[in-house]
Amino acid sequence: MFATRLITAAILLSLFAGALFGLSNFHWALALVPLLLVASREWARLAGYTHVGRWLFPGSIVLSAAFLLLANFASDHPPSRLPRDSVIYGVSAAFWLLLAPVWLGRKWRVSSPLLLAAAGWVVLVPTWLALVQLQTAPLQLLILMGIVWIADSAAYAAGRSFGKHKLAPGISPGKTWEGVIGAGIAVAVYYAGVRLLFGPAMVWMSGVAGCLLWAMMTVMSIEGDLFESWMKRQAGVKDSGSLLPGHGGVLDRIDGLTASMPVAALFSSYLQ
User: DSSP letter string over 9-21?
Assistant: First the structure.
């Protein structure tokens, strides 16, 4: 299983890096649409939709992305400067900062198709939009995504090595407070290294605002992981899908990004 995970990760990283730095912003946006479609199909499965719903919901997600894509590229405003997009990111931030913690804390088992569709839209569409808009500065996007990847890997390693105090045993029994601390330390070291390499060239990293962004992304990536874990627990499945050998589904790989990237896009639009 480890070899399978490693090979899959190497292939995905190569494809991702090539597309991130090699594609135009418009073609990058189009390249993400199939992943968005798969992720929305997986969400529909976790939500328990019928056969029709498992196509209707993804269709609405892709149509939303198409509308935003056409509207943004038809606009004279720079990417991430449109008021509409700031509203979308604001809705996402409100969901993750206000609603999701209560959802997880009370372990809500939501069965309403409309509520689950609304939650799925907020989880998926702002993430896709953030990845599209932040790709105009590909190195910055890679560094920001690195926060999520490093936090996830460090939390897993620290939890396996030192974990004794469960973070949310009723949601994801494997996660521990020691893992959270490990993630925080690893991201702090990563921040210091990136700051040393690039310094003031990346102003979104500077001062209190930059530190706040990195801290929020770390915490919210963990929250996104927990939220998807709760959705899988409610659905009674181990993985969101089986597309990626050794890794599960697309949602399993982007759960930390769904909570953190819209916030990063919102912050970055004002810090640059």
Answer: HHHHHHHHHHHHH
Average confidence (pLDDT) over 153-160: 91
Please report, rounded to a whole number, the percentage of residues in the chain having pLDDT higher than 70: 90
Q: Which residues pair with 248 in a beta bridge?
A: 244
Distance (Å, rounded) from C-alpha 96 to C-alpha 94? 6
Boundaries of every domain in the chain: 2-271
Task: Using the CB atoms, write b or e for 31-63: b if 16+ within 10 Å.
Answer: bbbebbbbbbbbbbbbbebeeebbeebbeebbe
CA–CA distance, 255 with 224 (Å, rounded to integer): 5
Handedness of CA 63, 61, 92, 19 (dihedral sign): negative
Q: Tell me the pTM.
A: 0.92
Residue with tokens 């990111």: 89
Cα separation, 135 vs 121, whole angstroms: 21
